[in-house]
Every structure is written in C-alpha cells, then in structure tokens.
Design a protein that fits this description.
4-stranded antiparallel sheet; Serine Threonine Protein Phosphatase 5, Tetratricopeptide repeat; alpha+beta; Alpha-Beta Plaits; 11 helices
Amino acid sequence: MHTKITANAAAMKRWLSRAEESLGNHSDRLDAINIFPVADGDTGTNLYQTVRSAAHAAHTSEATDLGELLTVAGRGAMEDARGNSGTLLAVFLSAFAEPLHGSTRLTCALLAQSMHRAQIRSWSALSDPVPGTMLSVLEAAARGAASTVSAHPGDDSNHALALTLHACVQHALEAVVHTESQLGPLTAAEVVDAGGVGFLLVLDALRAAALGEELQDELLDGLHGYDIQAPHIHHGSDAEGVEVMCTINLSPLDAATLRLHLDELGDSVIMSAVTEVEEGYRWRVHVHVPDAEPALALIHRAGDPVSITVTQLAAPPAGVEAREP
C-alpha cells in the first residue's frame, strides 16, 4: 500500500531514478528478447542508457514546475537517445511534459492529458509506425488513463490519481501480452516485444514514485520469453545494415524533406524536435539503412549534424561499440 502521495517535482525525479534502476536490472533480459524491428540485442541497453541521461538531467534541475522539469529530462534523453527504443522513450518524455507546464502537482486529468499528448507525438515521430511495439503499449496506457478520468470527472484527489496510474500500468501490461500476436517475428519466436516491456517498466516506476509504493517485481511473471532460462533469440542474427543517428538544426520544411529522402533510403525513420532554435528546431534523427554513406550525405546536405553515430544492426561482438564518423 502507498504511504504518501506527493506527485510533485521530487516525485518526478524519483520516477526517472526508479526507471533507471528498473531498466538497469532488466536490460539483459530485454536485450535477449529483442527481435523487432531488427534482432540486434540492444533494446534493454538502449532504454537504460537513455533514461539514465534523462534522470541525470532532471537531477541537475531545481525546477518545481513539472513541465519545466520533465522538458529538461526529455531534452537530456533526446540528446543522448540510443537506438529506436531509446529515441521513442525520449519522444515520450518530451511530449509527456507539454501539458504539465504551470503545474506543480500531477493529477489524474493531467496524467491523462500527458499520456494522450505522448501517444500522438510518438506515433507521429515515426514515418512508418507499427502496432505490436512500444507504440501499442503507450496507446493502451493512454486509453486506460482516459477511461479512468472519464469515470471521475473533475476529481483531482490523490485517490483518483492512484486509480489512473494503476489503470495505465494494467492496460500497458495487457498490451504487452498482446504484442506477441500482433507481429509475425514475435509470434514465431514466442516472445513479447522488448520495447513494450521496457516501457511497461517505465510506467510502473512512475506509479511507484508518485504513490510511494514499491516496484512490482511480479509484474513480468509469465511473459513469454522472459524466463531466466529463455534463450537470447538474437544470437546468430543475420541482420544487415547500420543504424545512423544524429542531431541537426533544420526548419520544419527542411526536416520534412530530409525525412522523405531517408524514407526512400531506409526504414525505422524517427525524427523528433528537441527544442526550438533560430533556424527552426533542433531535431534528433534515427534511421536504419543498408549503408551509412548515402544517408550521411543526405544529412550533411540538409545541414550541419552533430553527435553522429553509426552502429551495425547485427549484434556486435563483445566490446565493439558504435563508431562516430
């Protein structure tokens, strides 16, 4: 049972710290069941490293405004986002912050608004969003929040917030279970989606931090592929190509043009605005391509990218890290 509900800025910092703890503890198993969009065995690691950056950024902020605090956290996550899953988590955090500006306490209505905003932004960040992934789990969690708030109109009590948080986690869990039947590769491997499980852990950390409760160790019991003896399904992966990521300042029109060209060149294209700048916006760019050079040429033609990384999609040998061109 919860002992105290605060749901203030301190609780949001605890949320990110608890998410970092939880994803750190589960990163090996999340890596082991990582099969979509490519079986490169790094989803857990990417989520952990991304939320670690968010937690560090949040703890350097003295903001009491929830929107301001989580904007800082989202920006920190976006600047250091790792992989497909980490980039989506960064988009989630940035979007989650938007309805919270001007608020010092999370309520059930604000939670529902933030989840809804995050759902829209996350789906739109991808050129080709796919059900059965973290996106579906986020959508289900947002639906759970909305339905609970509808049943408690105008109720800003701690009780209503607790009900809404529990509904988010429960709907997310049901969506995670459903991912196995939504995607052919997951069905064939008899596992649930790694990114979806990771996002479920993030939501449970929010519940625990806001309600003064513990993380639910039993939450993942029975999920397919999550037993300790289950194999690392990405071993022997024949995934080809590379993942290219960078940050670049572009106008909305130039960003749309770059997205169009990257869509023609590869897949898993994610582009999300980090912050507003004089030229337009600072964008985080992610794409999977057969070869890095054509993608890098397009990016350099569009502007002056920084923080460029190129990573092989096939699971690398131990000790091999991403290279920076």
